[in-house]
């Protein structure tokens, strides 16, 4: 009798503990963050390239949208879902065919960044990216890894076609319109690559040598415009170093600019 009572009390306490855990909403992010364990916070940073277990609960799969760039890991106990990320910037990039499925999942090939920028028409760009954002939504993607908005510094840069311009103002206006269009559909973008991603060759080890004035007035100014005018969901750090230091370590500079 005494043993069964103790078990009942323990079960009740466990149930109350589960019920007391906050569930993620738009207005309680700080509360949920405080409730996360260190392990759970780390899992959000490493992505979900393969499934793992957190306290016995499966978390992480790349098969939600075949061909997508990747996913973040879920934290079920706090109501944090997985986030699906797909490559852009010329529209959604996923697998058009799927195993055991006769349907096709083609996405529109939208104009690349340089083509959009030559219009000098932010209203047109916003209309184009509204259509793009609708495909992001329909295919079950949460964040489009776009727009690419680095400055055209060298004509040999392998991703100049994705970027808008050598001019930070034009780049910032195009990126803002792009972001507003996509995010009007309830999905997000990821401004990239922050910052000074000037070449593709050896991009994971090269160091971009830039003065602080050039960084502020050229390379970072476009991001400044885009963040201020369109409130993007996310920003993607670049792979390169800046003046010998990894770009994502420039925390003080990033926070002052963004």
What number is the mean pLDDT?
A: 85
Instruction: Provide the spatial order of strands within the biggest beta sheet.
Output: 3-4-5-6-8
User: How far do the termini sit from each other?
Assistant: 63 Å
Dominant shape: globular
The fraction of residues assigned to DSSP E strands is 5-15%
Would you report the number of β strands?
Answer: 10
How many H/I helical runs? 9
Order of secondary-structure elements: HHHEEEEHHEHEEHHEEEH
Q: Which runs of at least 5 residues are low in confidence (pLDDT < 50)?
A: none
Largest sheet: 5 strands, mixed
Structural class assignment = alpha/beta
- Helicity level, as a percent range? 25-40%
| Computed Rg | 22 Å
Describe this structure in words.
The protein has 258 residues and is an alpha/beta fold. It contains nine helices and ten strands. Helices cover 38% and strands 12% of the residues. The radius of gyration is 22 Å and the shape is globular. The N and C termini lie far apart (63 Å). The model has no long low-confidence stretch (mean pLDDT 85).
């Amino acid at each position: 009798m005494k043993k069964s009572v103790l078990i009942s009390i323990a079960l009740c306490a466990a149930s109350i503990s589960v019920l007391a855990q906050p569930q993620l909403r738009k207005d309680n992010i700080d509360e949920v963050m405080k409730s996360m364990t260190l392990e759970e916070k780390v899992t959000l940073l490493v992505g979900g390239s393969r499934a793992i277990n957190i306290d016995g609960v499966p978390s992480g799969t790349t098969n939600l949208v075949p061909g997508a760039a990747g996913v973040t890991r879920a934290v079920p106990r706090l109501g944090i879902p997985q986030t699906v990320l797909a490559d852009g910037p010329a529209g959604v990039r996923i697998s058009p065919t799927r195993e055991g499925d006769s349907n096709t999942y083609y996405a529109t090939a939208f104009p690349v960044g340089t083509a959009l920028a030559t219009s000098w028409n932010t209203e047109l760009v916003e209309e184009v990216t509204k259509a793009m954002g609708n495909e992001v939504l329909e295919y079950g993607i949460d964040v489009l890894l776009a727009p690419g908005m680095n400055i055209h510094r060298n004509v040999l840069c392998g991703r100049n076609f994705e970027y808008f311009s050598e001019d930070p103002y034009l780049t910032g206006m195009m990126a803002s319109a792009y972001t507003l269009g996509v995010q009007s559909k309830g999905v997000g973008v990821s401004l990239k690559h922050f910052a000074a991603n000037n070449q593709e060759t050896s991009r994971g080890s090269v160091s971009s040598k830039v003065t602080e004035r050039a960084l502020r007035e050229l390379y970072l100014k476009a991001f400044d415009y885009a963040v201020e005018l369109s409130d993007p969901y996310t920003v993607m750090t670049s792979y390169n170093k800046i003046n010998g230091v990894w770009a994502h370590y420039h925390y003080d500079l990033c926070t002052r600019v963004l």
